[in-house]
Amino acid sequence: MPGSLRKPAMWAIGLALAAAGCSSTAGVEPPSAPQRAGLSVADRPEVETNPATSPSPTPVAVQLAPRAAGARPGAAKPSAGARSTSAPARSTSAPARRGVYRFNSEAWRAMAAAGFNAATDGGVASLGQAEAAAGLNGMVWVPAYDNRSCQQTMSDAAIVAVVTDNVRSGYGGLTYQIGDEPTANGCAAAPVYSHLTGLVHSADPRAQTWVADDQFNDPDTGHWPAGLPMNGTVDVLAFDVYPCQSGPCDYGMIDQAVNRIHQAGVAKWEFILQDFNASSWRWPSPAELRTQFEHWQHQGASGYWIFAWDYQDGNLADQAGHVAALQWINRQPV
Fold first, then answer.
1. Mind giving me the DSSP string for 227-294?
2. 227 CB-near residues (< 8 Å, 6+ apart)
3. Nearest-angstrom CA–CA distance, 255 and 39
4. What is the residue range of 122's domain?
5. 3 state SS of 191
6. Distance between CA 322 and CA 286 in Å, rounded?
7. Is residue 331 domain-resident?
8. Gap between the Cα atoms of 303 and 114, Å rounded
9. Distance separating alpha carbons of residues 263 and 248, to the nearest angstrom
10. Is 260 in contact with 221 (CB distance < 8 Å)?
11. Which of 229, 163, 220 lies closest to 192, judged by CA?
């Protein structure tokens, strides 16, 4: 999935991390925009990434399984009544997180006016101060795992240093996105992510770890992995399901994903809505955007994210009716 760290550029931050003990990043490319977008590798267009405005939520993403040629959204429909009606009750101790991914835009007040209370690229080393001034909680991007090599890409000391720097600067209790779509390329990432979560908690017990999981983002549900490998490895597991491609939106993907999430007993989870245009994915209409939300609604999620405020050459604020649709969504109970 997408986002973007920028103040300073993540690769500049990487130099500082190296000094703190980060393993060498030589030969490790920054995540591309499509990778941060949570798109399947086979369908992601090649996009040049500007290191000065780039690394963000969703590092290297991976493909669950090759999609059959010509496969369209609608290829795998749930049986009648497949939508879960037995969602666990969501805790009401804190307001729901209503977040938005961003790449280059710094229209913080417009994002807040649309009803969002969180955005990507937070923390002292990025844009946390500007986001906070607009009432947005920033999620910190930590590129600690590469789902292509299936390896931890930062040293333990460097990860702890990122969290410690935030705490010392008054940014305690943040959410840290540690890597992205960890199992997309078949990596057995669960043990590493449990370790990474422990490192973050050791530096800030109030912090939360977060990762986007794309295991349900394939219209052919026969390609979905068994079980839910990442369950319990991070504090918040977020699911990206982008149902609107060249044809009608396949909302059955969402319904079946919800059933699987309930079956796995995921303690705390969020979902990510599609609001972008790239490759085989198209802009959803405002009505389709609302319908996506309604298929996730009242199913036990603790919050959600929109992908994305700006992505490639598109900006949702330029799409007729999209901001109004998001304002409506952001007023609804999750």
1. S-TTTTSSSEEEEE----SSSS--THHHHHHHHHHHHHT-SSEEEEEE---BTTB-PPPHHHHHHHHH
2. 264
3. 19
4. 10-65+75-86+117-271
5. helix
6. 5
7. no
8. 16
9. 27
10. no
11. 229
Q: Give the 3-state secondary structure of 95-132.
A: CCEEEECCCCCCCHHHHHHCCCCEEECCCCCCCHHHHH
Sign for the CA dihedral angle at 259, 263, 269, 272 comes to negative
Higher pLDDT, 86 or 52: 86
**For 56-95, b where at least 16 C-beta lie within 10 A, e where not — what string?**
bbbbbbbbbeebeeebebbbbbbeeeeebeeeeebeeeee
Number of domains composing the chain = 1
Those residues with Cβ within 8 angstroms of residue 96's Cβ, 6 or more apart along the chain or in another chain: 90, 302, 303, 304, 333, 334
Length of the chain, in residues:
334
**Quick count: other Cβ atoms within 10 Å of Cβ 168?**
10
Sign of the Cα pseudo-torsion (121, 284, 180, 234, in order)? positive
Under 8 Å between Cβ of 21 and 161: yes
Encode burial over 108-117: b for 16+ CB neighbours within 10 A, e otherwise: beebbebbbb
Q: What is the pLDDT of residues 279-321, one digit of tens each?
A: 899 999 999 999 999 999 999 999 999 999 999 999 999 999 9
Answer whether residue 51 is part of any domain: yes
Give the largest Cα separation in the chain, rounded.
56
In a domain, 319, yes or no: no
- What per-residue confidence (pLDDT) applies to 272? 98
Q: Is 23 exposed, middle or buried (0-12, 13-18, 19+ CB in 10 A)?
A: middle
Does a structural domain hold residue 105? no
How far is residue 278's CA from residue 173's CA, in Å, rounded to a whole number? 34
More confident residue, 196 or 81: 196
Secondary structure of 137-165 in the HEC alphabet?
Answer: EEEEEECCEECCCCEECCCHHHHHHHHHH
Q: How far is CA 64 from the centre of its chain?
A: 16
44 SS3 class: coil
